Amino acid sequence: MTYCLGIRLNAGMVFLSDSRTNAGMDQVSTFRKMIIYEKPGDRFMVMLSAGNLSVSQSIRELLQVESLKDGPGDPPLTIWNAVSMFDVARVLGATVRRVNNDDGDALQKAGIEFNPALILGGQIRGEAMRMFHVYSAGNFIEATRETCYLQIGESKYGKPVLDRAIGFDTDLYDGLKIGLISMDSTMRSNLGVGLPIDILVVRRDSCTAEVNYRIEPGEPYFQDLRERWSAALRAAHISIPRPPYRSSN
Amino acid sequence: MTYCLGIRLNAGMVFLSDSRTNAGMDQVSTFRKMIIYEKPGDRFMVMLSAGNLSVSQSIRELLQVESLKDGPGDPPLTIWNAVSMFDVARVLGATVRRVNNDDGDALQKAGIEFNPALILGGQIRGEAMRMFHVYSAGNFIEATRETCYLQIGESKYGKPVLDRAIGFDTDLYDGLKIGLISMDSTMRSNLGVGLPIDILVVRRDSCTAEVNYRIEPGEPYFQDLRERWSAALRAAHISIPRPPYRSSN
């Protein structure tokens, strides 16, 4: 399994991805699930991927060269010349469909579901930051002020803390911290999600990564966060009075 | 959806179940998912059910009359004469298989999965308390000292708090409290799980319910618990220092 999280805040964006990949329990390995597409000063885009690794890797590779033609006379639209992140998401959707056309039938015959899930976020100079969740059919939804985070992969364990703590006006590094707590909750409850964790922070209108870091096992801040969070949860439930219920029948 | 939780502690057992049932988003109703099978002073058993409601209701009904014959000369084994909870779980497994035999094919033709999931816990006088998770194939696993809680239905949102807070020696009412926190986390993140919540507490060797209560919307203790837990989580993540990471490349 995989857990990836993208948070679109007023101040910028935060991306987190675990790196555990498994084909059965006895074939577990580490792959980076975060990739950057960048044209310095002009556009900065990050993609997180979940699902079958061969499919994700094909999409990542082909996205760099995919082009769309809206009409016969139109110039080919690519992620490098698109003037909006919406158009970049359309190119990504087309890439997903192309990989499905190429590999989908053969995968299905082998009993493998075509199930990529992608988070694509970034900024093109002149436009606001935008973030999308692209589905296996190539369609997509966009994160909004009201729902400012997107998850792919093993998303349920880490959702309660996001639902309680993340808002559009959350500070960028508080967003990263809450994202790490969400990742920790997921790793504790699901062996298929594991360290190292890749994190990336990009501030609004900067078009470059302010943090691009890999958290390895034993890294002191993350270890401290995990211990503090555990202790705080224990203290939190201890501080709540015991239920007063006795039988009503 | 559904969320049901059974916790087997040294001091006794705790059962919780939500009551939301839906057939599509526009047909949402309230059904009790907890049932008691009791022979006062002799045996006290509780069953929680998830999955298709018609299947669960058939199982609940038929379990009362189902019997198993291990050999040709053996007397019929029922939940009322079984001398161990293991045998009661076998009778429940047989009941699940009978309902699958009766209804499984017709359900499949209608595109409905035969997917019951059941938690069965209790005590027969003279034996220890035991708790089982019975699957749709009629097979089952038992809760142990190491893994002392069982969940069915929408189990992921509420699992992190259990993994951190529940142990075999947890106090009975702390167990109930943590179960309620787990239920709250699930309800907040999934609309398919909702109030009222049925709760039941049974102390070891008592063979009767110490608490058998329905928490309705607006019930003061549960409302207070939800607010305190939210506030404690907010305080918990605020108390953790912000990440120190800056770009490493």
How would you describe what is shown here?
2 copies of one chain form a homodimer. With 249 residues, chain A is an alpha+beta fold. In chain A, 33% of the residues lie in helices and 27% in strands. Chain A contains 5 helices and 12 strands. Chain A has helices spanning 53-63, 85-109, 159-165, 172-189, 220-239; strands at residues 3-8, 12-17, 20-22, 28-30, 34-39, 43-50, 117-124, 130-134, 140-142, 149-153, 197-203, 209-215. In chain A, the strands form 3 sheets. The first copy, chain A, has a 5-stranded antiparallel sheet, with helices on one face. A 5-stranded antiparallel sheet of chain A has the order 5-6-7-8-9, with helices on one face. In chain A, a hairpin with a 3-residue loop joins strand 1 (3-8) and strand 2 (12-17). The longest helix of chain A is centred in the middle third of the chain and has 25 residues, at 85-109. The model of chain A has no long low-confidence stretch (mean pLDDT 94). Chains A and B meet through helix 3, helix 4, strand 12 and helix 5 of A and helix 3, helix 4, strand 12 and helix 5 of B.
H/E element sequence of chain A:
EEEEEEHHEEEEHHEEH
Indicate the proportion of strand residues of chain A.
Answer: 25-35%
Largest interface: A-B, 51 and 52 residues
Chain-averaged pLDDT of chain A: 94
Residue share in helix of chain A: 25-40%
Number of strands of chain A: 12
User: What structural class do the secondary elements of chain A suggest?
Assistant: alpha+beta
Oligomer: homodimer
Strand order, sheet with most strands of chain A: 10-1-2-11-12
Instruction: Quickly count the helices of chain A.
Output: 5
Biggest beta-sheet profile of chain A: 5 strands, antiparallel
Our measurement of the CA-to-CA distance between the termini of chain A, rounded to an integer number of angstroms, reads 46 Å
What's the alpha carbon Rg of chain A, rounded to whole Å? 20 Å
**Which term fits the overall shape of chain A?**
globular
Unreliable runs of chain A: none
